[in-house]
From TrEMBL:
UniProt KW NAD keyword: yes
Full protein name: Glu/Leu/Phe/Val dehydrogenase
Organism: Amycolatopsis alkalitolerans
Database matches in SMART domains: ELFV_dehydrog (SM00839)
InterPro entries on file: Aminoacid_DH-like_N_sf, Glu/Leu/Phe/Val/Trp_DH, Glu/Leu/Phe/Val/Trp_DH_C, Glu/Leu/Phe/Val/Trp_DH_dimer, Glu/Leu/Phe/Val_DH_AS, Glu/Phe/Leu/Val/Trp_DH_bac/arc, NAD(P)-bd_dom_sf
Superkingdom assignment: Bacteria
Keyword line: NAD, Nucleotide-binding, Oxidoreductase
Active site: K80 (proton donor/acceptor)
Amino acid sequence: MTDGIFGRESGHEQVVFCQDRASGLKAIIAIYSTALGPALGGTRFYPYETEEAALADVLALSKGMAYKNALAGLDLGGGKAVIIGDPATAKTEALLRAYGRFVQSLGGRYITACDVGTYVHDMDVVARETRFVTGRSADDGGAGDSSVLTAFGVYQGMRACASHRWGSAELAGRRVGVAGVGKVGHILVEHLLEAGARVMISDVSPAAIERVRAAHPEVEVAQDADALAASPLDVFAPCALGGALNARTVPALRAEIVCGAANNQLATPDIEKQLEERGILYAPDYLVNAGGVFQVSDELHGFDFARAKRKAASIFDTTLAVFALAAAEGVPPATAADRLAERRMSEVGRLRTILTP
């Protein structure tokens, strides 16, 4: 199994398996690239069914982070970590601190942050064992919850999609479906409602749905993500786990635009072509969900929220630039985004071979 994953197709610089039996820690840290700088990416705490599933996820996520950070114009590489287990029952101070020691052992090649299943207070605990951590609480000198600017960035990307497709960035009156209203999705819903959009949601967690409905009773609820994708929408926003755009959902899509926060939305490479053939405008996930990395990376320089938000707002212009390149080169937006990211990793990353005193 590992021969196939770690063959020439992977391209990862380093993959580290971490285990501390006493605390129950089982984690994998994957560094895809440090061409532009230390590999920045969050820690996902999730009950993977198998170690192989966790490995496949962390490899895909870390590569996505390298492309995300490159396209965002940051001098940071891409990495990711996964902790295998149910965060509701397995997460302890000892486990998080053991994980922090493994991060520290990499000497700064990897800088961690929050992701699915980890929160600001978890990063405060991890930070007790390593200085290579962002997304800490304000009380601990950090930037706080990166979901705030992740959602803001997706909203800016969605406005750019609207501008490209309909000639106006306004979302008032548009019908938007948000699949997944957790840390990022529920903040995105608030941006959309403030903009005058009509919103429909779905989530596997009844509690998440009730939280949104309690604050915004006007929001509609779909039976599940598949039903939401098949609803008459203008924009479909996948904001849960990866693979939301697949052989089942894409043929049923009725939206003209797909723009959401979830990582690795395309279940298979051919999905991109299917979206293009159906005339559906797809905003590459790592392009529009980069607001969070603007937030946590700013923490490395002494966090200033206003400055980080201004940087996250640039996602609007970057999204339009990706669409312009896609049109000029006759390729789908995801391919255009990849080309821009790869170009920067190659051209700017090469400069690190010029030694300085």
